[in-house]
Design a protein that fits this description.
7 strands; about 35% helix; elongated; alpha+beta; two-stranded antiparallel sheet; about 260 residues; 9 helices; 2 domains; Ubiquitin-like (UB roll); Fumarate Reductase Iron-sulfur Protein, Chain B, domain 2
Length: about 260
Amino acid sequence: MKLTLNIWRQAESESTGAIKTYQIDNVSPEMSFLEMLDQLNEDLTAKGEEPVAFDSDCREGICGMCGLVINGTAHGRGMSPVRTTTCQLHMRWFHDGDTITIEPWKAGAFPVIKDLIVDRGALDRIMQAGGFISVNTGAAPDAHAAPISKFKADRAFDAATCIGCGACVAACPNGSAMLFTSAKISHLANLPQGQPERKLRVKNMIGQHDAELLGHCTNIGECAAVCPKGISLDSITQLNRDLIASLFSGVGMKQH
């Protein structure tokens, strides 16, 4: 296939970025999207031009590092018939002669580092504020023996599949990370081990979310639509319930 690529180029966070157009030929339908970008970078390097900087790690849809906005949609959602990360999006879903626009995550809380790479440290700091269990939960056999209903176990597992890629933030018109934050809160809120710090956890994590200048949720639903792991909006409902309960509990915020 021969493709036209419109790619966001930005030398550094303080510089002005712009879309630059490239032509690429001999793209195999069996390539992943990132392999196609690898080929482009090989061509650019051979010409003595600066390759396009983009993030990737596992390339197996596990780590979430590869997030890109493709033709206006996070991870190219809708081009593949299944939910997928950018690294698992394959070129067979495109056609010869297509024009593809590739941009970094668009969010004020995710400043561009270079080209398609953004700083997603805001999500790390939300996790550091309370996305963990610090109380002693005993050894593995003790945890396994703790009674928990299948419904709660399933909800905890579903929320735990969040890979923290940030697609929800990039897709949200408000730049909110509520789907990410609620997934981390719901995961622990449905487990017995998460109960002792449950109210403090939601206060701290929401406080950090707001401190990062991430937007508020207005239930538009774009976050869930592009989430490669299918995190449900139900997790935001869980977050709101826990937040309301914590506000009336008298539990204060604590810096960890």
